[in-house]
Amino acid sequence: MKMVLHSRRVAMEAKKRAQILLDIDESGGRKPESVSTVTAKRGVCANTVTNVRRKYAENGIDAAIFRKKRDVPPVAAKVTGEVEAHIIAVCCSAPPEGRERWSMRMIADKIVLDGVIDSISDETVRLVLKKQNLSRT
What we know:
mainly alpha, rod-shaped
């Protein structure tokens, strides 16, 4: 449900920016609306109208309507390919003496003890194994 709400919100923001562009359009011999008229009509602040206008002038319509995608995620991924490889190697190795198979917690503890990563949760281990379609047997 969150994804639907998020995409709906993004679509509404894009629609509002497109409407602002139409309101301030000077083509076709029509007189553009003033910033104060657009702010009252669309329920946005004057900075929004100015920013949409500036982005359109500098970078075109896509930049004015849609948000720029991030080049780098806000938080770097903790689990790299090397960490995944160690998790898989531990999972595929023989379990500790007295155990029939590895538990998620034991795999996580082993990875930390081997110095591969500072800390990792058993849920992260489960997700890595699920992604690789592996079982602990």
